[in-house]
Amino acid sequence: MNCRDDYTLSTEPEAQQPERIHAYLARSYWASGIPLETVRRSLAGSLCFGVFHAGLQVALARVVSDRATFAYLCDVYVLEEHRGRGLAAWMLEAIAAHPELQGLRRFILATRDAHGLYARHGFEPLSRPQAFMEILAKASYAAPAQPDPKG
Length: 151
Ligand SMILES: CC(C)(COP(=O)(O)OP(=O)(O)OC[C@H]1O[C@@H](n2cnc3c(N)ncnc32)[C@H](O)[C@@H]1OP(=O)(O)O)[C@@H](O)C(=O)NCCC(=O)NCCS
Known about the structure:
The protein is of the alpha+beta class. The protein has one domain (2-131): Aminopeptidase, CATH 3.40.630.30. 22% of the residues lie in helices and 25% in strands. The radius of gyration is 17 Å and the shape is globular. The mean pLDDT is 94.
């Protein structure tokens, strides 16, 4: 565990607080409506960098990785009342220093408007965007279609 002022940073799986993470992600622009169970599964399969204040999780950065060649950074947030204090930068430093994330061939992320933040930590626009493809759910966490009552 790593401490700064009144904050601690932990990558321990048991330290992460899925209900609090869910409360933020469900109102985020990228995972709106995500079910709690999906958040739990995503945390269990990831390296999670959580920041805590007074025992409560106030920030997260989640890394999906094989821990050898590739990583994907996602679900990066800091709760509103804790922003502007360097917590996101701290999580990005911890990610860069993590022993299981060294020597990767590719580390990617997607962001709507925080390019400047990530650029300070070495991320650049895709060098060959035309090489990438995706399967993107159109309404990922929308309520499932209701069965037709007439069958
Ligand atoms: C983006 C976010 C994680 C930044 O958290 P934060 O703890 O306030 O960021 P920091 O205090 O560590 O800021 C570090 C630096 O990055 C800059 N920065 C912060 N957010 C930025 C953004 N969206 N775009 C560009 N630069 C940004 C800050 O100005 C700061 O620069 P400084 O050192 O010159 O003051 C936070 O604003 C947030 O949770 N936003 C909503 C969720 C979101 O957009 N997440 C990113 C999805 S990819």
